[in-house]
Write a structure and sequence with these properties.
The protein is built from no helices and ten strands. It is mainly β and 118 residues long. It has one domain: Jelly Rolls (Sandwich). The strands form two sheets. It has a six-stranded antiparallel sheet, with no helix packed on it.
């Protein structure tokens, strides 16, 4: 891994969970960790048998979901994908999507969008 020259320790940002921006999309509890002009990163938590709201898709960036814990179904406009812990899915630009936890355990999904829609 190449390190960029000229960066200092002040350029490294640590974001504590308590400092994230919490919001809900349906039953999906989201925590936004960082939003820059290049990337958005956050997490989504879904209790068993709960579902998030439909995200209409993003105009400029691809989004990635990574299942850190549990299992979820990601419903798209024409298909659904069942994901388990350790799985990831890349969501194309403009594709509507929704997370559904139809299982008996909570699910934690990490997500990133690059570049953000702004």
């Amino acid at each position: 891994m190449m390190m960029q020259q000229g960066k200092t320790m002040q350029d490294i940002k640590l974001i504590k969970f308590k400092d994230t921006k919490e919001f809900f999309e349906g039953d999906e509890k989201c925590n936004l960790y960082v939003k820059t002009d290049k990337i958005i990163f956050g997490t989504s938590y879904l209790e068993p048998r709960k579902e998030g709201a439909v995200d209409p898709g993003h105009k400029y960036g691809e989004e990635i979901f990574f299942v850190a814990k549990g299992k979820v179904t990601c419903k798209f406009s024409k298909v659904s994908k069942n994901l388990k812990e350790g799985d990831a899915v890349v969501i194309p630009i403009g594709e509507p999507h929704k997370l559904i936890n139809k299982y008996d355990e909570p699910a934690l999904i990490c997500w990133a969008l690059a570049p953000p829609d702004n």
